[in-house]
Amino acid sequence: MADFLNTTLDELIGNFEFLGDWEERFAYLIELGKKLPPLDESEMIEENRVHGCQANVWLRMRPCNGEPPAFEIRADADAFIVKGLIAVLLLIYNGKTAEQIVATDCIGTVARLGLDKHLSPTRRNGLHSMVSRIQALAAESATQTV
Amino acid sequence: MNAPAKTTSLAKRDGVIDWAALREDFPILQETVNDHPLVYLDNAASSQKPRQVIDAIRHHYEHDNANVHRGIHELSNRATEAYEGARQRVADFINAGSREEIIFTRGTTEGLNLVANSWGLENLREGDTILLTEMEHHSNLVPWQLLAQRIGARLDFIEITGDDGQLDLQWLDEQLARARLLSLTHISNTMGTVNPIAEICARAREAGVVTVMDAAQSAGHAPVDVQAIGCDFLAFSGHKTCGPTGIGVLYGRRELLEAMPPYQGGGEMISRVEFRNVTFNVVPHKFEAGTPNVAGAVGLHAALDYLDAIGRGAIFEHDQRLAKRACERLAEINGIRLFGPKKGRSGVVSFVLPDAHALDLATMADQKGVALRAGHHCNQPLLAKLGVPATARASFYFYNTETEVDRFIEVIHQVRKLFA
């Protein structure tokens, strides 16, 4: 449910599988990154920073109406490949409830996209950091609503 | 047991070094990365090791390994000779007055921390000023910040002039007049600036300021002579100098070292110990607590032999030639921001492309076998001053070739197309 991508996760995985070599996959990832709606300058603050990533990454999450509430997630980065990864993460996590977020294995999905081995360890750590942040915020919010 | 023969692939044609032939000495340069031949341009972070260094370490472990200094037996004597022989080799390499002025450390960072914690704690007081520059690596900034916080000292900085990365020395004498200690880098790891350290040390000496040189980027790349520089301390790392990781050097003027308290306590650094009393060993052993990195020192010895067989003057010229070629080709890119001096720079080239982020560039270049650095290069305050979150950096060494520079440029153009 990341509307800006106008695609489902299964379609995305299909697209990646269709693309032959790593260069085409990276080019596609960069295209996804370019479609990512930017955060406002005022949101790119320390409070929203995701640490553990070599690029600058900012992430915001808020619960929407509904019971249990689904989360709206927005994020941005200063490097396009990271933005592309964020786009994939949003496709996986955006619009899900805290319980669903905590239960979702996104690293496995990224591996299915065939991108994991092409990402440097530090960059992969960045991905882990983003996922940890999303899951921690979801868990925190779930505790507060109980 | 004699050390292995130290033959190099050094060859000269009409008096000119055949640089490409030296690549034969570096097994790792034959690696394939992501189905491309490796183009290793991250030498400012760590250099590769010639077979001569790898063989020397292997030989040490296979024939001479034992603990040093205390043993009566043959192997301990061999290990001690190898270790102390390496110390003499380092002294010759930087033209120290004696081998007692050479302390083995883990690397540049430990050397700088040693000076801060021993000389600094002993001699600096609340309100004293420590003078640094804006281009220091975190390893020559944070130890002084920690010291300043501990004793209430102040930090002052020689500013840089802008993207050309020169030190603004117009206020140097005024800054020195207020300072007790000056610590600065010989060559900037981000800008490639070669600082006029002999001139700066001479002015510091006149002002009675103690001088510390960070030679991490210079010791393996350019002639470094501590007496000609006229510094009080100088630190460098083995691993940036074709040697192994985990070994480094701190040079200190003998009279300063003798007056300094130990940095760490343990074996090796004592001469007599009672339950409530201790007498320390003489320099340099006073500063080397515990079993030292003997194999590291042996590897470093082989590395320094290797570098001097080529000649550091020739290495520096080769680095500069490659950097010049890279800078000229990079300057053709519209909107590129190139950092560092136009002339007289080292083999370090930092830049920001108008379209591709440094991290994106380095990631994509890696896919094509080109190893670049991207990020803040442990220079966060410098990059903040320049107003960039990250730069891409190519750093050359003597085993890099013109063909590799051209490949690097070609890859940049290929990658930029993806971000257009």
Describe the structure in your own words.
The complex is a heterodimer of chains A (146) and B (420). Chain A has 146 residues and is mostly helical. Chain A has a single domain (3-145), classed as Sufe protein. Chain: A (Alpha-Beta Complex). Chain A is built from 6 helices and 2 strands, in the order ααββαααα. In chain A, α2 packs across α3 (80-93) and α3 packs parallel to α6. Chain A starts with 8 loop residues before the first helix and ends with a helix. Chain B has 420 residues and is of the alpha/beta class. Chain B folds into 2 domains: 12-48 and 311-419, Aspartate Aminotransferase, domain 1 (Alpha-Beta Complex), CATH 3.90.1150; 56-308, Type I PLP-dependent aspartate aminotransferase-like (Major domain) (Aspartate Aminotransferase, domain 2, 3-Layer(aba) Sandwich). Chain B has a 7-stranded mixed β-sheet with strand order 6-12-11-10-9-7-8, with helices on both faces. The longest helix of chain B is centred in the first third of the chain and has 20 residues, at 74-93. Classes of the chains: A mainly alpha (146), B alpha/beta (420). At the A-B interface, α2 and α3 of A face α12 of B.
